[in-house]
Specification:
The protein is of the alpha/beta class and 370 residues long. It has eleven helices and 15 strands.
Length: 370
């Protein structure tokens, strides 16, 4: 069997040769008592050790329900702790996480699940007027049967649906055929300690993300551990990130900006991920920066515009801010100046990329001229 190798040329830092789970475990071993995750609506906090414990429980649960290397695990919901735990747990068992846009309606959901051949779907029951569990039932009426006893004619690959209740309260079942988050943990607890087999090849696929669909139907982009972990690692290097940093993340996790450029940047470097709200709220974002003394904030230009408008009506102490990334659309020079001066984000970086590229291809440096 041929042995693959990588040749490093250019730059001073070699590429990482680890899987996402290997890098995450290394960070946990060095930063176990540091905060890994903070959410403010509702307030939830996890150290790296606590987060790792939850990831292990859900990874074992997915394994107990048949999740293996290459299994497509869909995740559908807003910016919640369970979203990230599912992502890290899928990586731990070698499964492929499929990011599903929480704005999707029934037909868009069907398209995504069918195209990606999702086998296990994890979802939030509802958010605002989006009734996720109801839409799944509309697509898969067979789910009224007990878990394991139903099969979908429309989505033949789908065999398991798991619903979580945001927060620490147990979820009630929307239908008999759904598993709950607690049931998933219970299934995993039955396994022997050595039952789970983590992946060791960083070139294995780990994530399917959908493009925006601006020129047609969204395309399903397949990315590997090597792709997105290295992208996150070098974004963190450009931001000069250390375990002392706290990143405020108002961008959605389902997008490559939220998953790779935000969450994985923190989890690869031992920094703290701060989530102001499950969906973007400019006031909540500024409140989180002030309360949690965030050193960085990410966003698309329109988010920064909204935050500057909120700052006019309600001043906050944002003196902890040092850096961040503005990307996702053209960044007007005047807006960049205001972010540097009025938000105090003096080392704001401008990023460019595309989903197919994991996603960042170009990023300014903190010491670049304006």
């Amino acid at each position: 069997m041929p042995v693959r190798s990588y040749h490093h040329q250019g730059g001073v830092s070699p590429l990482l040769g680890a899987t996402i789970d290997e890098q995450f475990r290394a960070v946990v071993s060095e930063n176990g008592d540091r905060e890994a995750f903070v959410a403010l609506q509702p307030e939830r906090r996890r150290t790296y050790r606590e987060l790792d414990t939850e990831v292990e429980a859900i990874a074992r649960g997915l394994w107990a329900l048949g999740g293996r290397e290459g299994t497509k695990v869909g995740i559908w919901g807003t910016d919640r702790l369970e979203w990230l735990v599912t992502a890290l747990a899928a990586a731990r068992i070698g499964a492929i996480l499929v990011n599903i846009n929480p704005a999707y309606r029934t037909e868009e959901l069907r398209y995504a699940l069918e195209l990606a051949e999702v086998e296990i779907l994890v979802l939030e029951p509802c958010f605002r007027d989006s009734r996720y569990a109801e839409m799944v039932h509309d697509l898969v009426p067979e789910i009224e049967a007990a878990p394991g006893d139903w099969r979908s004619e429309v989505l033949p690959a789908l065999r398991t649906v798991i619903v979580f209740q945001p927060g620490d309260a147990p979820a009630s079942k929307p239908n008999d055929g759904f598993h709950t988050w607690e049931e998933l943990k219970h299934e995993g607890a039955r396994l022997s300690s050595d039952a789970l087999i983590p992946p060791s090849d960083p070139d294995l696929p780990v994530n399917i993300q959908f493009t925006s669909g601006t020129t047609g139907a969204p395309k399903a982009v397949l990315l590997t551990h090597h792709n997105i972990l290295n992208n996150a690692w070098f974004v963190g290097e450009a931001m000069k990130f250390t375990p002392e940093d706290r990143l405020c993340v108002p961008v959605p996790f389902y997008h490559c900006f939220g998953l790779v450029v935000s969450a994985l940047v923190c989890f690869a470097r031992g920094a703290t991920l701060v989530v102001p709200a499950p969906h973007f709220e400019p006031g909540a974002t500024l409140d989180a920066i002030e309360k949690e003394r965030c050193t960085a904030v990410h966003g698309v230009p329109t988010m920064f515009v909204a935050e500057l408008e909120s700052l006019l009506t309600t001043p906050r102490d944002l003196s902890s801010l040092r850096t961040g990334i503005m990307a996702g659309a053209p960044c007007p020079p005047e807006l960049v100046k205001e972010v540097e001066t009025k938000l105090g984000c003096r080392e704001i970086l401008i990023g460019y990329g595309q989903t197919e590229a994991s996603p960042v291809t170009h990023l300014t440096r903190a010491d670049d001229s304006f």
